[in-house]
């Protein structure tokens, strides 16, 4: 019962082929393409794959990109299905004002993170940080209710905004420093601590609200770069979105 998971992000499409639609399934193949290059998937990295029997994805890039991905999937006889954020799914409840307006990447990653925590011990409050093109910081209480979260610009967007918005800031990437003494280090440290500071703030909000130390999980391609600058112990999980898609797929496809 092969299963293809697809995460169409703001910048790149990431995919993973598993031997079954269930948590813990074996990973058979995986890859990533920039959105500009997705029209080559069927003749490229998808061509040699075993045909997936089921597929589930999440997409934040809009309908035109979704259609381009579905065109590539015509290579196989598999129905495309995409997660839409809802009021409730896989044990999580959604506290967003309009649940369907919550980015499905955020919803799916939270589902992955919640089950990650439950697999290890008793339920507890949870902070989920996704570090990619944008950064999101989500708060979930011990009962599995998504209480709310932050959206902030990712590191790359922050630096590009400063480059285009100021008269003379064009410098190479620097190092994260406690007391930056050159422009490169000042910019790199500023972006990093903006993210770390936002996360710390949400940690305090959740701790205060729940009266219990939250578990902290971080994911996304740049998570490892943020890890040394965080103020709390964070567990890095490679791809929470795939983990969440496997949880949902197990319920939908009965894996
Ligand atoms: N030192 C850093 N600290 C924090 N974030 C960084 C750093 N360097 C790069 N980044 C961020 O990481 C992003 C790349 O992460 P990732 O590979 O998860 O994103 P992506 O797959 O391109 O995004 P998406 O999932 O939205 O398509 C960059 O866009 C940038 O914002
Ligand atoms: C916030 C991003 C860009 C993070 O990838 C994405 O989840 C998105 O476009 N969300 C829709 C708006 C929202 O989540 O409130
Ligand atoms: K993403």
UniProtKB/TrEMBL annotation:
Gene3D superfamilies: 3.30.420.40
List of residues binding substrate: 96, 103-106, 183
Keywords: ATP-binding, Coenzyme A biosynthesis, Cytoplasm, Kinase, Nucleotide-binding, Potassium, Transferase
Any one of the GO BP annotations: coenzyme A biosynthetic process
UniProt signal peptide: none
Enzymatic reactions: (R)-pantothenate + ATP = (R)-4'-phosphopantothenate + ADP + H(+)
Primary localization class, coarse: cytoplasm
Cofactor: NH4(+); K(+)
Localization per record: Cytoplasm
Functional pathway: Cofactor biosynthesis; coenzyme A biosynthesis; CoA from (R)-pantothenate: step 1/5
InterPro entries: ATPase_NBD, Type_III_PanK
Gene Ontology terms: cellular component: cytoplasm
Domain of life: Bacteria
Residues of the active site: 105 (proton acceptor)
Pfam families hit by this protein: Pan_kinase
Cofactor descriptive note: A monovalent cation. Ammonium or potassium.
Single GO term (MF): pantothenate kinase activity
EC number annotated for this UniProt entry: 2.7.1.33
Subunit (UniProt): Homodimer.
Role this protein plays: Catalyzes the phosphorylation of pantothenate (Pan), the first step in CoA biosynthesis.
Family assignment from sequence similarity: Belongs to the type III pantothenate kinase family.
PANTHER family registered for this protein in UniProt: TYPE III PANTOTHENATE KINASE
Listed name of the protein: Type III pantothenate kinase
Species: Acidovorax kalamii
